[in-house]
Each structure stands twice: as structure tokens, then as C-alpha cells.
Model the fold of this input.
Amino acid sequence: MWQDAQLNRIASTLSECGYVVLDKALPDELCRQLAYEARNDMQAYYREAGVGRGGLPLQDKNIRGDQITWLSGQTPVQSEWLHHMEALRVALNERLFLGLFSFESHYAHYAPGAFYQKHLDAFRGRSNRILSTVFYLNEAWQSNWGGELGLYSEHNQEELLEKVEPMFGRMVIFLSDTFPHEVKAASKDRYSIAGWFRVNSSDSKQIDPNA
Done:
């Protein structure tokens, strides 16, 4: 489980910079089990990812070419993953008073050549996604294979802040409505878990959809 020093670093870096990159974020055995499930057990469940939220998302490989399958806790390793992320949600609320209410995540598979153009995960005032997470499942990944996550400045979308290689066990956490980001094409199959911490925007007139 998360260590206090690790949680304090996450909270302080998010508060100062709005994003944090963590190596060896979770136990190696959990990483290996998630990687195995993503590559093997879940293959029949992947579907082409869409662009946009609500209604019927548009599938456009000129924008994004990944395949995804949502994690609902239906296997022991998924339950353990969600348990760790729930502990992170509670800890960030205690330290940063973010009001995070829930977490959603999916496996993402980028076949060789697939990419995701620069985008935001949320727009200010229009979404309940607060923090985005990316957790990498690529054992023995080589730098020359590509597949980096590019994280850009909120003030200048051409200013690259971080180029994050998709190394095994690495996690990136960032403000969903602040940092444009993109996924570069790779020469090998690339696996990760994309996730979002959300606030509850339900009110007396509308129930917040978990989408």
C-alpha cells in the first residue's frame, strides 16, 4: 500500500506543479499481474476507443487509435488495483481537500503506430474529472520504441513540460482540465491503465452519470 512519504510527495508536487511522475508507484507483483491480464486475459474485451463523452463517442483513428476495456473489479487483480486507487483518493482528499468522489479506469492498448493527438481530459466548468492518471504496464520497454506521453503547458500548448516514457510501473498524475497531452506512436505494442478521479456533480435536478 502507499507509504506516507510517497503520498506526501504526490500531494506536495501536485499542489506546486499540477502534475507528478512516479516510478515504482505500486508493488511489482501487482504490476506484473495487471500487465499479464491486459495482454492476455482481456484481449477479447478490447474495443476501439471513441472521441468525446456522452451519447455515442466518435471513433476516428486520425485522432486516437487505441483500444480500451474498462476495469470494473471483476477479477482479483482489478479489485486490488481499485483498492490501491481508492486509498490514493482518500489520501489526496485528506491532504488537498479536493472532494474526489470516485475513480474510473480502463486498460489501453496502443498497437504499433497508434497514437492519440493532443487533447484535454476535461474542460473547466464542464466536467467532473479532476485528476487524470496513467499507469504503465510495459516490461523491459526500450526508449527507442517511442510511445511517450507528452505533457504540455496550460499557457502555451507548444511548450513541452514533460516527455514521459511508458516504463513498467511508472504512474503519471495530473490535473485533468489543465494540461494538454498526447500519446506518441510506438513501434511495439504499448499497454497502460488510464484513469480519472472525479467529483460528484449531482444535484437535485440531475444525477451525475458515471461516464
Q: What stands out?
A: The chain has one domain: 4-51+60-198. The domain at 4-51+60-198 is CATH 2.60.120.620 (Jelly Rolls). The CA atoms of residues 42 and 190 lie 14 Å apart.
